[in-house]
Design a protein that fits this description.
Number of domains: 2
Largest sheet: 7 strands, parallel
CATH architecture of the largest domain: 3-Layer(aba) Sandwich
Number of helices: 13
Number of strands: 7
Shape: globular
CATH class of the largest domain: Alpha Beta
Distance between the termini: 36 Å
Length: about 350
């Protein structure tokens, strides 16, 4: 019996081993993904992003507990992917997020996986999408991805997740950040965590100004502009605007968490009703195919280009004998790449 089959049968050990193999990009991990892929496409993928210090990990902790214990949500299997900064020494995840979720330990319906960015930008690691597929295939109905918390550059999560929650907090200069927008434009739900701190009203007012400034139409189309040119895309029924709600939470006390879950479920219904769920899945898979094609071509390119030739071309660029574009044309001249 294969690791993939063991994981499908509920083995947490097999699941952990597959996730490790996938993160490391091994042949075993790739074969497991191939075997698991037919079982994917059912999970609700939820992205949690925002600046460091806003309490994202604590919010994820509270959401996971409610998914497991609240009436109407109970017994849902929850997969958590906590993307941590890379260690400068080992390249591994620093594991700070997992420490803050330690009270979830012992619940066999929750699986927490920390992973390192390993130099990737955009708040996610290169293999996050593959990790999501593993959780999806093995029956995790809710998959929560907590991004690394790098600030306004974290927009990759908007392509991967069905529902994106942007977490703000009073006292972090968010009245200015909200006006600048930044990652707020990817939000499906806006959460003001640590709402018992002074300044929560100011933060909420600034967020509302931001929504009014950009207008509801901007938020309606923000996740769809990259799919408008997809082949064979059918027209949707007339859409209602989805205006990102602004919710207050105190995650350390589980205050406001049920309201967040309610809005997450409403957003899922919205995506399904207007066909946007399928669009997002199509766009995500198209993006994954492009990423895999680039990886394959780059691997083939490295096999055909010698180190001496590469050094020669770099020297010609440094000495301004060739432009970077001319250098690339020379380096990809091998027909076998295609």
């Amino acid at each position: 019996m294969t690791l993939a089959r063991d994981a499908l049968n509920g083995s947490r050990l097999a699941l952990a081993q597959i996730l490790t193999q996938v993160e490391n990009g091994t042949d075993l991990g790739k074969s497991a993904l191939d075997e698991l892929f037919p079982y994917t496409g059912k999970a609700h993928i939820i992205g949690i992003t925002g600046a460091p210090g806003t309490g994202k990990s604590t919010l994820v902790n509270s959401l996971a507990k409610k998914f497991r214990n609240h009436q109407g949500e109970e017994n849902r299997k929850v997969g958590i992917i906590a993307v941590d900064p890379s260690s400068p020494f080992t390249g591994g995840a620093i594991l700070g997020d997992r420490v803050r979720m330690k009270d979830l330990a012992g619940d066999r319906g929750i699986f927490i996986r920390s992973m390192a960015t390993r130099g990737s930008i955009g708040g996610l690691a290169a293999t996050t999408t593959a990790m999501v597929q593993v959780f999806d295939a093995t029956g995790y109905e809710k998959i929560i991805i907590e991004t690394v918390g790098a600030g306004q550059a974290e927009v990759d999560i908007a392509t991967l997740a069905h529902t994106v929650i942007v977490v703000e907090s009073p006292g972090f200069g968010d009245d200015i950040q909200a006006i600048k927008a930044g990652i707020l434009e990817i939000a499906d739900i806006l959460v003001i965590n640590k709402a018992d701190l002074p300044g929560a009203e100011v933060t909420e007012r600034a967020l509302r100004v931001n929504l009014d400034h950009f207008g509801s139409q901007n938020f309606l189309i923000k996740h769809q502009d990259f799919i408008s040119n997809l082949p064979d895309r059918e027209a949707h029924p007339s859409k209602e605007d989805w205006i990102p709600p602004i919710l207050r939470t105190i995650a350390t006390k589980d205050d406001g968490i049920l309201e967040v879950i309610q809005k997450m479920n409403e957003h899922r219904e919205y995506l399904t009703k207007y066909g946007i769920w399928v669009d997002k899945e199509t766009a995500r898979l198209l993006g994954e195919l492009k990423h895999l094609i680039i990886d394959k071509l780059f691997s083939r390119w490295k096999e055909h280009v010698s180190e001496e030739e590469l050094k020669k071309v770099i020297h010609e660029v440094l000495s301004r004998q060739k432009s970077p574009d001319m250098a690339v044309e020379e380096l990809i001249k091998y027909e076998k790449l295609f």
